[in-house]
From TrEMBL:
Entry-linked SUPFAM superfamilies: FMN-dependent nitroreductase-like
Superkingdom to which the source organism belongs: Bacteria
Pfam families given in the database record: Nitroreductase
InterPro entries assigned: Nitroreductase, Nitroreductase-like
UniProt-listed PANTHER family: NAD(P)H NITROREDUCTASE YDGI-RELATED, NITROREDUCTASE
Organism: Caulobacter endophyticus
Segments forming domain Nitroreductase: 7-193
Protein name: Nitroreductase family protein
Protein family membership: Belongs to the nitroreductase family.
Gene Ontology molecular function, alphabetical: oxidoreductase activity
Amino acid sequence: MDVSTAVAERFSARAFKPDPVSGETVRAILEAAARAPSGGNLQPWKVHAVAGDVLAEFKAKVAARLGSPDEAQYAVYPANLWEPFRTRRFQVGEDLYGALEIPREDKIGRLRQFARNAEFFGAPVGLFFSIDRNLGPPQWSDLGMYMQTVMLLATERGLATCAQEFWSAYGKLAADFLGLPDDHMVFSGMALGVADEAAPVNAWRSRRDDFQVWGELRGF
């Protein structure tokens, strides 16, 4: 599979088959992704992969705390989101729940679907990406590029992923479980496994604006 195909085929899977993914495969993906760009070669990422009984133990701890999140370590979105970002976020939510046939008035149904984040959407592997609290936005950018590289390498191997900033709301719980030092914080999680292609939630794709909305070529 070439890079262009991996980029086109990658999507945020929200339903996974229980098929296990070997530790060797997970390590190979994580190690290969370390060639991602890194300003000054700081390599600011720290990654934990959990599966099997360890993942089950963690999910049990989260289930006991669901609905009582930790104090947020950072804001996933700015307050009072403005246009065009507000509309884009609204639209992707409507498309997601539309694919699941969960109407806006079914708030319980929407909350139930959102809570599936805590189960990694049934994926057999959960990844956690953390970073030193004293690092800045450029290093957060590096971490994001590392995560994107992980997702593309997973796609190349026929696996699916879903990046989950959901875990920023349970960052302390995750950090304690993983044994992170106090100077590190969980930035994001990620579900990894084989996508359930029969699940309706995996049949839709989020929209992207046309190039002319956000791009410009000069001097060509």
